[in-house]
Amino acid sequence: MQQNTAAADDGVECEESSSPKPAPPPPPAPAPAPAAASFQPATASTIDRFEAIVSAQHSSGFWTYSDGLMSLLGVSDRDLRSAVVDAVGNRFSPVLMSTVAVVAFLRKNLAHERDSWEMMEEKAMAWLNAELGDKTGDVMDAVKRLF
Description:
The protein is mainly alpha-helical. It has one domain (41-144). The chain contains 6 helices and 2 strands, in the order ββαααααα. It has helices spanning 46-56, 67-73, 77-88, 94-109, 114-132, 136-144, and strands at 3-7, 13-17. α4 packs antiparallel against α5 (114-132).
């Protein structure tokens, strides 16, 4: 690099560079975005499960039964049905079974995120209490063992 000394108007000498300063290196390229994964309940992350649960709750507080929901929760339909029937007898319904299962799942698997689902649970428990009365605690105890 060749440097020239030139006199400024005020009589002070300053250095001039005959070649420009090199540009700083460019920032690293961002990592490529992961490919969008299709939702598969058996391998869904906890966040995917939570989002699916939130979107499936009925405005009255219950969850409608579906094989997909049971798969999402990772619970055997046979075991769940048996536990619910043992606890509530002739008050059994698939909607009741689904709702109890979701609440038990949330309490067991997402306890650390309770602030995120507490209002959903309150609504579900109000619905369950209206349906089952004093049997609500019995069925919750029976089902929580499955998770």
